[in-house]
Amino acid sequence: MADEQIHAGHRKRLLERFQTAGLRSFSDIEVLELLLTFAIPRRDTNPIAHRLLDRFSGLHTVFDAPIESLTQVEGVTPRAASLLHLIPAVWSRYSECRAEQTRYLCSVEDYSSVLVPRFHGVREEHVWMLSMDAKCKLLDCRELCSGSIGSVNLSVRRVVEIAMGLNATMVVLAHNHPTGIAVPSQEDVETTRRLAAALDLVEVRLMDHLIVADDDYISLYLSGLMQWNQRGYL
User: Fold this and answer.
1) I want to staple 49 with a disulfide (CB 3.0 to 4.6 A). Which of 32, 91, 144, 201 is the partner?
2) Residues near 223 by Cβ (< 8 Å), separated by ≥ 6?
3) Residue 46 contacts by C-beta under 8 Å, 6 or more apart in sequence?
């Protein structure tokens, strides 16, 4: 009973610190401690937090770990593992919603803020397409397919039909490299050229193609792999 009272007091102090000053003063151990209190009642979560960081070597790798790996750590219940696994998914949804409040996407920074969060925590390759009008107003952002960017899953016809259906003037593509290296392959470049040429026929401009890896990305436009003249893509 005395131990439970001590743990309850510690939990209360952690929560009050967060409510007063946020997480700035918290160590990684304390962040995990606080989170685990919401899923593991009446136990000291400090040793569990230590074991998690010892196993995964960092706060972000704890959050990115599969549920089955988290539950292998002593003291981590399925409920606690689900809570930890939920953190990056919630952050991704929050980032998406916030970014979409910027309805006019006039720069690489603007449209990357909408697209890059879509890939957070994703372990398979996915392709997204963002559509805008002539004033750079966001019309639509949707997932096109999963699989390789150069595979038959990415239909040129579907890309063109979506753009035309939205009456879009400009589109931006993005896909991820789950390997963690945001470097465009030759296949990425060639596929981008085919899509740009097809869109150009219906007077839609492919503005950019982002290659995303973790929280990093490379813009084919900024990399000089996409150039434009007055008629369209070169």
Assistant:
1) 32
2) 184
3) 29, 33
- Give the max Cα distance, the chain: 77
pLDDT (0 to 100) of residue 153: 60
pLDDT tier at 33, thresholds 50, 70, 90: very high
Partner residues linked to 140 by β-bridges: 131
Q: Where are the alpha helices (DSSP H) in the chain?
A: 2-21, 28-37, 46-56, 59-64, 67-70, 78-99, 108-115, 156-165, 186-201
Kindly indicate the confidence band of residue 104, based on its pLDDT and cuts at 50, 70 and 90: confident
Question: Which of 27, 26, 48, 52 minimizes the C-alpha distance to 37?
Answer: 48
Q: What is the pLDDT of residue 67?
A: 93
Residue owning tokens 């685990």: 36
